């Protein structure tokens, strides 16, 4: 069994406010507020942990409030390997309106020296038995080029590398050639790749795979997702749900794919597991992880459609 390690250089505390409505430029009132651990790699670890998949979350934590972060992680039984640095862990704010609209404000306030990557590599000790998930934005002070060099070193070790970060350009990803990427529709648009219809989504997935990326998994909210890999092209039709919160759903989708992949599932079952995790996460408040009973139910309702001509 391969070991899964998630890496979060820029974690956060996620604050979620429930509001009847939200008017820009006006005083607004929140009916309730909830506080969760945040950071994309942390979300992946949380989804894996609650569903019985062993993993370690490596996280760079500002020393000023790291103890609170670790206490919350302990309450969720997360296995966290902290890397303390000077500073304070940032916060994100998500406003949930009664009509289902979510407004997210992410504070870009954390920074550290990019020498932290040397310490991260020493802790990871990657090899061909490792699965490494690199997720989230880079903090201030950590250069894109040094991070790409760091990730290339992980690839050369033989590890399976999943990358989900909007800090990299399309050219960066094509040069790096990670094992797995999972862009959403908006992220593809930022790359100049369309995904607004099933056909162009599949075409974009195929193009990325043919550039040298082993597995390309595209999520599009309630619309069909797309996948391209050595096993072929597929459309993924998610189960119909009424989402409570979509924050962290993409991270749970990655967790589901890796849960299936490391357990030896067929690629079609990996895709069903991925989208069942992602859909189930939408049924939870804030960034709470998906429930195993919801995953099992939604797995059966997720459809995988092979595409034979493109």
**Can you write the helix and strand succession as a string?**
EEEHEHEEEHEHEHEHHEEEHHHE
Strand content: 25-35%
Average residue-wise pLDDT: 93
Low-confidence stretches: none
Helical run tally:
10
Strand pairing plus helix content: what structural class? alpha/beta
End-to-end gap: 35 Å
Q: What summary fits the major beta sheet?
A: 10 strands, mixed
Strand order, biggest sheet?
Answer: 5-4-1-8-9-10-11-12-13-14
Q: What's the gyration radius in Å? A: 19 Å
Helix content class: 25-40%
Anisotropy-based shape: globular
Tell how many strands the DSSP assignment holds.
14
In summary, what is this structure?
By secondary structure, the chain is α/β, with parallel strands linked by helices. It has ten helices and 14 strands. The chain is 35% helix and 27% strand.
């Amino acid at each position: 069994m391969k070991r899964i390690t998630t890496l979060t250089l820029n974690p956060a505390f996620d604050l979620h406010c429930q509001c009847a409505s939200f008017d820009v430029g006006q005083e607004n009132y929140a009916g309730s507020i909830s506080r969760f651990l945040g950071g994309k790699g942390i979300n992946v670890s949380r989804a894996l942990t609650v569903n019985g998949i062993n993993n370690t979350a490596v996280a760079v934590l500002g020393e000023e409030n790291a103890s609170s972060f670790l206490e919350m992680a302990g309450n969720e039984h997360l296995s966290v390997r902290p890397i303390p640095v000077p500073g304070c862990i940032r916060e994100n704010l998500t406003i949930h309106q009664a009509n289902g609209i979510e407004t997210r404000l992410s504070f870009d306030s954390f920074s550290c020296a990019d020498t932290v990557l040397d310490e991260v590599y020493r802790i990871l000790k990657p090899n061909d038995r490792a699965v490494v998930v690199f997720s989230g934005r880079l903090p201030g002070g950590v250069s894109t080029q040094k991070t790409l060099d760091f990730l290339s070193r992980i690839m050369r070790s033989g590890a399976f590398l999943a990358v989900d970060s909007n800090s990299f350009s399309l050219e960066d990803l094509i040069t790096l050639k990670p094992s797995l990427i999972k862009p959403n529709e908006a992220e593809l648009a930022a790359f100049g790749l369309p995904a607004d219809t099933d056909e162009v989504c599949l075409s974009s997935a195929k193009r990325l795979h043919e550039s040298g990326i082993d597995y390309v998994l595209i999520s599009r909210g309630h619309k069909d997702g797309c996948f391209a890999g050595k096993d072929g092209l597929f459309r993924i039709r998610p189960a119909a749900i009424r989402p409570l919160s979509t924050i962290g759903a993409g991270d749970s989708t990655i967790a589901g794919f890796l849960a299936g992949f490391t357990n030896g599932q067929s690629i079609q079952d990996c895709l069903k597991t991925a989208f069942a995790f992602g859909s189930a996460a939408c049924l939870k408040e804030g960034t709470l992880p998906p429930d195993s009973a919801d995953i099992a139910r939604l797995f059966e309702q997720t459809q995988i459609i092979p595409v034979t001509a493109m």
